[in-house]
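Annex B. Sample input.
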Amino acid sequence: MRKSIRFKLKDQPIKKGSVLSITLLILSGELIYLLPYVLPRIFRPTFLEVFNLNNLQLGSLFSVYGIIALLSYVYGGVISDKFQPKKLMSYSLFFTSFGGLVLASYPSYFVLQILYGYWGFTTVFLFWGAMIKATRVWGGTDNQGQAFGFLDGGRGLVAASMGSLGILIFSIFLTNDIELTSLTERKEAFRYVILFSSFMIFLTGLWVLFFMDSNQKDQKNNVISSNSFSNIKTVLKIQSVWLIMIIIISAYIGYRVTDIYSLYASDVMFFNQIEAANVSSLQLYLRPLACILIAMLADKSSYIYFIIFGFVTMLIGSTIFAFGIVQLNMNFIFYLSLIIVATGTYAIRALYFSIMQEGRIPLVLTGTAVGLISVVGYTPDIFAPPIFGYFLDKYPGLLGHQYVFTILVLFSILGLLASIKFAYLKKEELKH
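Annex B, continued. Sample output.
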């Protein structure tokens, strides 16, 4: 009884944080994933070529990352409830940037596996729970939709901007048109992209360490010292936690599918490597547009209804791809379908942690809750890439991509059902 009262007292109203702090949260929240995720997504055909990988091997690297990340979520979440976010996040950025020096040396596949395992630890253990908690604190009591919408929308803008910069750097260091360059030239040009990315991650770590100081009083007030195992048991008794797990795992499948947009452009639409990279970069710009628009609208209503809308949209777009409608010389349909899927995916991503407040999850247990939710919610990091890679390698071209989007259709339905259940529980709670 005393413990539950304590939690309630801790969840007192708090004010929204500063512009500087949300800016640093946005920068760090995306740049830390630049090396393991963003570059392979934007430059997928190039990444496969310069590292001499097939799709299954790249998928296996993501799985190694996911396995280590899975172990890091819970323990990292618990740690984020005991320490202030700023230091945890900055150290994570520093450690992650060092991995870029290894990547730039074009190591063997075995070393790449170790590197991705290392990144699974550095990008999650000290970082993930701390970032989500800092964002929740920044949003204050009444602006959770804006907080998480700005976070994910801003992250999308950072990813798109870094993607465009990466493409520019890659192009500058190519002496001829992409079709006329040798593999050695492409490897050297891509090395500069990797090194630039590493530098930006390290620099952001310094900015977070010295300048992120929003809501320090609120952050200190929401640090908990009670038994970690007891906190885990408390969180697992909350029904909304389990529904959020299902919502996130379904949405995250959609996010992992964004990895193959550039490959679809290359293999099905027959775009060259730079054109394919531009397709991936273009869809990244949809992320801030969708997220920020949703963020502005969501605080005027219930967040869960916008998540339902996102799953419906994602279901429509993925169904178009799954039926093989999008083929060569159908550029308009390709871009339209991509926009539909991406809009739904990013709308959900913008809000799925904001419903923690609607789900009555105590602020002081945010890190623990995020850790447990993430263990299930982000399991696609383990199984989705190798499954996608298997289908893409076994069934090259359109058919392989159809199988991938069929998987997305199934998870869109699952997420939609979980969201409807969450909305029903919220409605019943309001009645009582």
